[in-house]
Amino acid sequence: MTHAVEELLDTFDHLPEAQQREAALEILRRVQRLALDPMSDHELLLSAEGRFLELDRREDANERP
Fold first, then answer.
1. Dihedral sign computed on CA atoms, order 54, 35, 23, 10
2. pTM value?
3. Which of 18, 25, 39, 51 could cross-link with 43 by S-S, CB 3.0 to 4.6 Å?
């Protein structure tokens, strides 16, 4: 993931919920216009692994005092 995408996602995470919904809807509208190739199995595994590692990190952070 590029630094620009990480910054975008970090900014998104700090938005109020209503603005997150607004941004997500606009991104989904724009994605529909893209000609995207299906993800390979390897890309799907990497994406899932990254997501689960992030969830584990957040879960660990919430359990610590």
1. positive
2. 0.55
3. 39
